[in-house]
Amino acid sequence: xxxxxLLVCGxxxxxxxxxxxxxxxxxxxxxxxxxxxxxxxxxDQGQFKTREGETLIFDDKGNMxxxxxxxxxxxxxxxxxxxxxxxxxxxxxxNLHQIxxxxxxxxSSRVCFNKVLTKLCLTAFDIPNTPFVILGNFxxxxxxxxxxFFEKEQDVYVKAASQGSSxxxxxxxxxxxxxxxIAEAFAYSDSVIIEKTIPHRELEVAAFEIDxxxxxxxxxxIIMPSDVFYTYDEKYSxxxxxxxxxxxxxxxxxxxxQIRSYAYKAFVNxxxxxxxxxxFFLSDKGEVILNEANTFPGMTPISMFPKLVEHMGYDMAExxxxxxxxxxxxxxxx
Length: 334
Ligand SMILES: Nc1ncnc2c1ncn2[C@@H]1O[C@H](COP(=O)(O)OP(=O)(O)O)[C@@H](O)[C@H]1O
Ligand SMILES: [Mg+2]
Hints:
34% of the residues lie in helices and 28% in strands. By secondary structure, the chain is of the alpha+beta class. It has 3 domains: 3-103 and 322-330, Rossmann fold, CATH 3.40.50.20; 110-128 and 199-315, D-amino Acid Aminotransferase, Chain A, domain 1; 132-196, Dna Ligase, domain 1 (2-Layer Sandwich). Helix 1 (16-31) links the parallel strand 1 (3-10) and strand 2. Helix 3 (106-113) packs across helix 4 (115-124).
């Protein structure tokens, strides 16, 4: 039996290029699975195109039309970081075309991508997160709320609600920069979140399903030069001074277990599925704080998710194989 897998990458967002790098990694893993036939598609400006530039369109019966040829697609791998993959839109699109996809479905993706919704859910499920205020609109009432919060904390992060890759995210330590940062964050998103700055170590786990179980990896660490935060350039540029490790030094076993148990709690309560990278801060006071969940984490050669899965002794090709077979079994979710 063979299965047709559509690997979608690109997207409209700031992470288009990174997604192409992740997709070549996924493609390489899928090629080692003889039962899978693969179509690679780049989503750009709302159009799906093959590497050769041919347009792909989809009917409402799970078929992909390429010129004169019609191929039934069994499953989609939405290898998109940020919009419109981690927002849940692509999953809804393919479900409506009768094609199931691996990974978190629309609702969970939307909740995890939107920092306001994530915070509200984490708080509701008693999962520690940074103290925050939410600005629902750029108006006087909300600005007053922001100024009051700054007066108390004196050091904050201003973040656009629905963005990734540290875009629309500003570290504010000077009152005179607060209003402009809020205005800039609102240019990226229709809500803004302000958080207390937490001096921390940055720890991440891979949460994934394999062999019928949810597995939470041990944490890896992102170690940044001391004067910066994890910006877009620190994440992706060649000159980044950031290093990563899957064996962080000096972590108390209790902290590791706390991280894994909050990650598990978030995975099940926020209805994540198949894969997710869950990011934590370990504060300078020793508190474990969940920062965010990435529903289609990076899979570049320097990315944490595949490294953490492999560090747990699992094979990424086997992981994808099982996720694809589960998605086919589930079918489209409508
Ligand atoms: N409350 C905070 N305290 C300290 N550092 C923070 C805080 N919030 C964010 N950061 C820094 O900014 C980076 C980006 O913020 P994050 O919320 O992860 O946004 P993104 O979705 O863009 O990755 C984090 O990795 C961290 O280095
Ligand atoms: Mg982040």
